[in-house]
Amino acid sequence: MKREFFRTTGERLAEAALAVPPGTVFFRLDLAGQQVGFASTTVDTTGTALRVSDVLLLEFPVLGRMHRTRARSRAVVNRALRLQTLDVMFDGDEGQLLAHGEVQGDSVLRVTLVSARDSQATRLRLSQPIILTTLLPLRLAFGGALKPGRTFATRVFDPLELAERAVSVTIAAESTLVVPDSAGFDSTAMAWTAVRFDTVRAFRIEERSEGLTTNAWIDAQGHIVRVTGPVGLTQERTEYEIAYQNFRHRDVSRFVRGAAPPGPGAVIASTALAAGVSLPTQSRAEYRAVLTGADLSALELTGGRQQRVGDTLIVRRERPAALAAAYRLPARDPSLAPWLAAQPFIQNADPRIRTEAHQILGDESEPTRAAERLTHWVAAHVRREVGVGLPNAVRVLAQRRGDCNELTVLYVALAQAVGLPARPVAGLLAVGGRFYYHAWPEVYLGGWVAVDPLLDQFPADAAHLRLIVGGLARHAQLIRFVGRTRLEGL
Fold first, then answer.
1. Measured between alpha carbons, how far is residue 22 from residues 17, 18, 146 in Å?
2. Mean pLDDT of the chain
3. Could you tell me if 387 and 395 are in contact, meaning their C-beta atoms sit under 8 angstroms apart?
4. Distance from the Cα of residue 400 to its chain's centroid
């Protein structure tokens, strides 16, 4: 009785996974009625494991030119769908990133990151065995969770963000969807079209994570049929020719010409430097913006210089009293230790970083004067240039060039090297009525104070709207809000 009726979830998953057939499913990615990408998921089976490969190709016009992103992840999971190894390739406008991960026990993921000529190893602590985002539908189907009305919470691991996040899942009503079963080439339209269709019974799954909701329809075998995301992107299962061949042969030039230029209040994924926009020369003491079009509750909008009143975000530049620090360098408060610890690509213990930091500051031990001196030094000694690849503090110090991300990691590494607590943040920079992606450091003085070495501002002016605190893995979350969020400067 116990073996048959009281089996653990892992035992049920392992048995159900034995019936998983190998194969590939293809998806068309649409945004506002236009195909902007292609995706596929391939499952290969072995005697003891499953190999799951995901491919994503995404192309969309921004500011009159086409932006291309290519991502691929290959994961090996055991029969209980627990991750064993992971390989990720991400290739976009900012360069290529390679990552290899290997689970050690159930509590540590060792990750090696490679970008351009740089590599960095890091260890990520896990709260529980890893469940990949792409395998969550399989786990729901095999775990017997596809029962309308059921709600539960879990944690998933996003291989492109290299981070865990909490997910609340609700199983909604079952429905019937129609998907293409085969395709033929239409010589009149010069495109592949569906010639036969299949009716699929699917469950609607509501996934809520960090203030965003995704609706996915999955069949009883755990295969995705359709997904609608919070940024307006729709993923639909279809035939290979419709998903890929039509995407590959589309008229890209007409697509770019037909894309409307971003209007006032638009949130733009690229930096102002990459977009060729003149950087602001005047600083603002206060900035107010009305937020519309998205649930931003998952972001770090409030605290310090920022206040949210209803749908209005108020940013005030720090006054002199907020810059007074009640400690001397190096900081010894245990609560600030996380902001003195080395991070991937912020190598504050590297001898070159430490030597340069001490040469810049000499015997200066007053935190406010040290933070201001570092701001002006980085601004004067690093040429402003669009970065390629992941920002790396040691490389930026050697090459003396980069954009906001490069200047930020160098500043944070130099500050931490002398015991000045610092952290990277990211958000938006208001320029000419539009809002561009931007990164800058914050240092701890009387509280967290924003500085901007790219614009040579100490403290940074109020046109900096902080959304994220932390490193690059967190910055990737901002892409979810681009295209669906609007801000109106007041």
1. 11, 11, 22
2. 82
3. no
4. 26
| β-pairing verdict for 401-402 and 383-384 | parallel
Peptide bond into 459 cis (omega under 30): yes
Whether the predicted pLDDT of 211 surpasses 70: no
CA 83 to chain CA centroid, Å, is 20
- pLDDT at position 463 is 94
Q: How far apart are CA 134 and CA 224, in angstroms?
A: 9
Whole-number Å distance between alpha carbons of 478 and 424: 14
**Cα separation, 474 vs 483, whole angstroms:** 18
Q: Which candidate, 460, 430, 456, 437, places its Cα nearest to that of 448?
A: 460
Statement: residue 231 has pLDDT above 70: no
CB 110 within 8 A of CB 123: yes
Question: What is the amino acid identity at position 303?
Answer: G
Residue 476's nearest CA partner among 92, 74, 27, 132 is 92
Q: Residues with Cβ < 8 Å from 189, sequence gap 6 or more?
A: none
Neighbours of 470 (CB within 10 A): 15
Note whether 204 and 217 are within 8 A (CB). yes
Strand-pairing partners, residue 465, are 428
The pLDDT of residue 461 is above 70? yes
Residue (of 344, 349, 412) closest to 378 by Cα position: 412
- Per-residue pLDDT band at 470 (split at 50, 70, 90): confident
| CA 72/CA 60 separation, integer angstroms | 18
Q: Taking residues 43-63, what's their average pLDDT?
A: 80
- Identify the pLDDT of residue 388: 59
Alpha-carbon distance of 39 to 25, in angstroms, equals 9
Confidence of residue 256 (pLDDT cuts 50, 70, 90): very low
Task: Please say whether the beta carbons of 167 and 153 come within 8 A.
Answer: yes
Q: Please, are residues 80 and 66 in contact by the beta-carbon 8 Å criterion?
A: no
- Please state, in angstroms and rounded to a whole number, the distance separating the CA atoms of residues 110 and 101: 5
Distance separating alpha carbons of residues 13 and 249, to the nearest angstrom: 41
